[in-house]
Every structure is written in C-alpha cells, then in structure tokens.
C-alpha cells in the first residue's frame, strides 16, 4: 500500500502529527511518502524510510496574522493553486491513499483523480459535535472586560464567523465545478474517511456516520534525553514546564516567567529566549518534561495539552486562537486543567492560579484517570487498522463496480 501524507505547514502541529503517523507506517513496511513545506525540518529524520516531497504551503507568519485578525485562513486563489499543485503531485506519486492534515483543498484534488482521501482533524471541529458554539476569540480589539458579555452573543455570532471562513473554500469548489458546502464544519471534515485526534468519549458528539472515526491523540516529541539541568532542579519545589509552541503568544513569555518566580517553583522553559536563574532549551522532549512536571503551561493546543495529560500532568492553557480555546473548553470542563487568557497573564493572574492548580488534588487525580485514554502510543495502531479497513472497502467497491 502506497500512502501519501500531506501536512499544511502553517503550524508545527499540522506537520508533526501526520509525520508521526507516516514514520510509524513506514516502520511497519508500507511505502510512505510525505509532502509539505521545508519549514519544520528539525522534525525529519533522514534515517526514516519516508520519501519526502516539497509542497508549497502558506507562510507561518501570514497564517497567524489571518487568525489574529479574524480573516479567512486561505485566499481562494491560494486554494485553487493548491489543487493544481496537489494534482500534479498525485499524478507523479500515484498513491493508493492520501492523508491530509489541514490541507482542505485535498477534498477537491483527490476527488478529481478518484484517489481515496483521509482527513485528519480534531473532533471539536466536527459537524457532529454537541456544542458547536465558538468561544469569544482572542482578538486585541475585543476589550477583555467584554468577554463575558460577548460570550452570551456567540450563539448568534458563530454562524456569521463560519460563513466568512467558508466563502473562499466554496469559491475553490465552484472553480472546479463541485457543489458548495453548506457549513464550515462540513468543509473541514469532507473526506472519504475522517479520523479524529481524540479518544472516543473525550468530546461530546451526536451519532457519527460510519466514515467518521476516532484514533486518539497523536503527539510528537523529539527523540532526545532531557537536558542535564533537570537533575539540578530543587526536589523540594514543584516543577512548572512552559512550552508555548509555534503558535503561542510569545510576547507574554517573560511575564509568565516573572510570575512563576514569585510562586517559588522550579521553572523550565522550552524557548530560544533565556531568563536569569531559569533553565531553558530550544528543543526539549515534551513527553519526558511533562512526566517530570507538576504543571504544564502551554498554548492550550491539542498536541501539547493532550501530551501533558497523557503523562498525568494538569494543563494551564493560554490560548492564542479559537482552536486552542476549543481544546481548553473541553479540558476545563473535564477538570483536567484551566484556561487563562493572555491578557489575564498581563494582569498577574498566574500568581494566584498556579498555586491553586498545584494544590488541586482533585484535578491531579482526575488527570491521572484520563492519562491512559490519551496515550499517544495507541493512535498509530488505530490509524493502521483504519487504513486496512479503508483499502478493504475500496477493494470491495471496485469489484462491485467492475461486475
């Protein structure tokens, strides 16, 4: 079976997650190809038997700017160009299956060439999620004092936001003579097989169609030992690990460190920046660090949040966008962590929230119960089973059509 994975390199997560699955499948003996922008090259291990292809993606900076300013994530011209580039790649590679993460143009390019398309997504973006209302977005023009009031308006605002986000995707569809999508969530999950990066039951869902399935959490961590300074931490103080990721609000990192110092804890920061009397490194294995930590502070996105929880460590999420806010909505509802908006960090809220979380025995116990369900080692095996099932079904369909 020849598999082509495609990751849209606007953030690390959309490359790291499919790359993790690609490496697993390659090690299992499948013919694996991987296409993305050459942006997060520290991910790639040349010893892994995966054939890599260059595929242009939107720049990381312009994507984050669009998110910050609540604009459509992709221009219609970009999506149309993506389809052209993808069809050229598919004709060259000739895969049996294409697997995409955040590459929504694949819903057209794969159908044009009649190649089965597997879409990787988070369940909170599904059309079948029980609560489809967005949180109040993190936008600098929205006064923080108005968040509570605006939260009551979000049931009315959410459809307007989704209509705006859907417009360019439908322009792409019409350009290739495909019928337009009715909803944004439909557009995000339109694939022959939709696989969710959550364990079943973690997100409240209505009954799913057969081609929407859960594989569980997929997280990437560098295959490195912990830095030597972990052995120098004060064993009598709790450890707080800070990792804001590629799409976090890095401008508040210094304030986070300042407030953590006031809490009297060990601090380790995954960052290129250095701070006096604080241990840091630019590349730290998040799984090992989270296992050692008593609390993880991250952007609230699913890769790091789920990874921390899988190690039995509560999460304090400081989201920068709606995806991260949605993750933390479920994490907080299940009492696995807490959301702090980045403007609350500027007001010094961490000085009270961090000690409260470190002393929250109930939360710690709840996280330890959930940890096994979010074990990232399970998802690749579930993914392989879904690929086997998909190809078996495709073989049956082909035989029936031939008859």
TrEMBL record:
<keyword id="KW-0328">Glycosyltransferase</keyword>
<keyword id="KW-0808">Transferase</keyword>
<protein>
    <submittedName>
        <fullName>PGL/p-HBAD biosynthesis glycosyltransferase/MT3034</fullName>
        <ecNumber>2.4.1.-</ecNumber>
    </submittedName>
</protein>
<dbReference type="InterPro" id="IPR050271">
    <property type="entry name" value="UDP-glycosyltransferase"/>
</dbReference>
<dbReference type="GO" id="GO:0008194">
    <property type="term" value="F:UDP-glycosyltransferase activity"/>
</dbReference>
